[in-house]
Write the structure tokens for this entry.
Amino acid sequence: MIVRYLGHSAFLIEDLLLDPFLSGNPTCKITPDEVNCNIICLTHDHDDHIGDAFEIGKRNNAVIVAIHEIAKYASSRGLKTEGMNIGGTITVGEWDIKMVEALHSSGMGHPAGFILKHRKFGRTIYHAGDTGLFSDMRLIGDEGIDIAMLPIGDRYTMGIRDALRAVDLIRPKLVIPMHYGSFPAISVNPEDFRQDCPVEVEIFKIGEEKDL
Ligand code: NI
Ligand code: MN
């Protein structure tokens, strides 16, 4: 399964794109017109997560998957949408997409994370969105997570220490740190996270692609 990191919390996993914050990210040189996908999952409506989603969505005729209120707004702007809410699972293409809780804030609806299961590759990925640590991450771990994408940048989300506690709750096989280094306010060293993490950690450079 091909995973490409687009900086901040943005990933392209096969044909599914998450939180595509590209043109506003000073550390990202990838432009929205380079990104092709069928599905765009949005964890919440902060600018550093919605990012270029609508532009990319329109050009690709991709479906926006988001919490009801964001989906309604996206739909009013002419995008294809699948609205959902926390606890629900939908199937789009080869993906089973479950929306789970995140401990954060948002303008529209409620912030969320996603558990993504690809039917062909048989992998389960947890993208936590923006979140602080919460003990129900244990329930997310009970679903059997292969890859966890976790924020480590502190200030607006978990920092490294709490992200390590999250790993204990989620029990993934592999962790990919995200939401760090894009701005001075969230500048942490992912190697500090890797050093203390009990499971394998993949640190991506922006634009880097790995077969996981
Ligand atoms: Ni946020
Ligand atoms: Mn954020």
User: Anything to note?
Assistant: Residues 3 and 210 are 5 Å apart (CA to CA). The radius of gyration is 15 Å. The longest helix spans residues 160-170. The chain has a mean pLDDT of 98.
